[in-house]
C-alpha cells in the first residue's frame, strides 16, 4: 500500500525540505503508478464477455435438406455450408475470385479455408476477426508474428485463436501473400450496429458467440459491465454462415461518449488513437483500421497487448496505449470504435 504524501498548505516546511518532500511525492507516486498498474489493468474475468468461451454442443445433424438464403442461387446442405475445406460460397458476386487457400484451404497441412471463419468477403465473425481491407503489409506481419509465436490469446481456452496460429505456421509464404492481397483488395463494409442499452436479452454461448435464448427461456437481464455482441440472424449465422447477415453489439449506456473522450484525447491513461491509426481511425499505412470493427474482437486485442500475449514486431507501439486500461476503459473504447460507421 503506497501513501502519497502531499504537504498541506501552511505546513512549516523550509524550501529544501519542501523539495525533498516533493521528491518523495514524485518517487512514491511513480511507485504507486507502478504497483497499482497490476490493479488498474483489465483482468481475464471481467473480459469474459469478449471471449465468450463456450461449451461444446453436438453439431446439428445433416439430414440432406438443401438450404437457401435470400438473393442467393446456391443450395447447400448443412455439411456443405460448414465444410472446413470448402464452405458454401453463397454470394460469389460479393467478392473477387478467391485464391485456393481462401476458398478451400490446404487439407494436407491441416489449414482450413480462410473463408470458413473470415467469410469469402473477409467481413468475418466477431469470435474470429474481420480481415477485409487490411493493408497487405499489416496482414502479412500478423501471420508472421503468429508463426514466430509472438501473437496468441491471453485466454488459453480460446481454441479458434490457437487454430489460427497453427494455420499461420503451416502456410507457405506464397499462400500468405495470396490471402493478404485478396482480402486487402476489397473494402470493409458496414457490419456491426452498436446500441446503448440497460438490459440485454438472455443469451447462451455457442461457438464463441452470444446467442439469444428463445421460447420459454427468453428473457432480459441487466447488461452490467459487458458488451453483448450477437448475430442479427442467429440461425443464418450459426448454421449457414450467411455472409450478408451482420452483428449487433449491445453496450452500456454512456460507453460510446466515454470511449470517444478517451480515444480522441487519450485522457490521463492512454494516447489519442488517431495519431497512429489515422484521422478517421481508418488505418494509416501498416497501422490497422479500427472504425466500425467488432468491439469483441478489438477488446480481445487490447487485452492481449496488455497481457503481453500479443507482442509482434509492431506491438510495442501499443504498449503505452494499453498499459493502464481497465476492463471498463476497454468496453468504452471498443463501443466507440464499433459505433463509427464503416463509411465516412
Ligand atoms: C477456425 C477459424 C479460422 C480460420 C479457418 C482462419 N482464421 Fe484467421 N483468425 C481466426 C481467429 C480466431 C483470429 C484471431 C482472433 C483473436 O485472437 O481474437 C484470426 C485472426 C486473423 C488475422 C488477424 C487480423 C487482424 O486484424 O490482425 C488474419 C490476418 C487472419 N486471421 C488470416 C487468416 C487466413 C489467411 C486464413 C486462411 C489460411 C485464416 N485466417 C483462417 C480464426 C480463423
Ligand atoms: C503510437 C502509435 C499508436 C497509437 C497511439 C495507438 N495505436 Fe493501436 N496500433 C498501433 C500499431 C502499430 C498496431 C499494430 C500492432 C501489431 O502489429 O501488433 C496497433 C494495433 C491496434 C489494435 C489491433 C487491431 C487489429 O486489427 O488486430 C487495436 C484494437 C488498437 N491498436 C487500438 C488502439 C486504440 C483504441 C488506440 C487509442 C486509445 C490506439 N490503438 C492507439 C499503433 C498505435
TrEMBL record:
Entry keyword set: Electron transport, Heme, Iron, Membrane, Metal-binding, Transmembrane, Transmembrane helix, Transport
GO MF term set: electron transfer activity; heme binding; metal ion binding
Superkingdom in the source lineage: Bacteria
Gene3D superfamilies reported for this sequence: Cytochrome c-like domain
Signal peptide range: none
Membrane-spanning ranges: 12-34
Name of a matching Pfam family: Cytochrom_C
Every Cytochrome c domain range: 100-187, 254-341
InterPro entries, A to Z: Cyt_c-like_dom (IPR009056), Cyt_c-like_dom_sf (IPR036909), Cytochrome_c_Oxidase_Subunit (IPR050597)
Keyword Transmembrane helix among record annotations: yes
PANTHER family per UniProt: CBB3-TYPE CYTOCHROME C OXIDASE SUBUNIT FIXP (PTHR33751), CYTOCHROME C4 (PTHR33751:SF9)
Protein's recorded name: Cytochrome c domain-containing protein
Organism listed in the record: SAR86 cluster bacterium
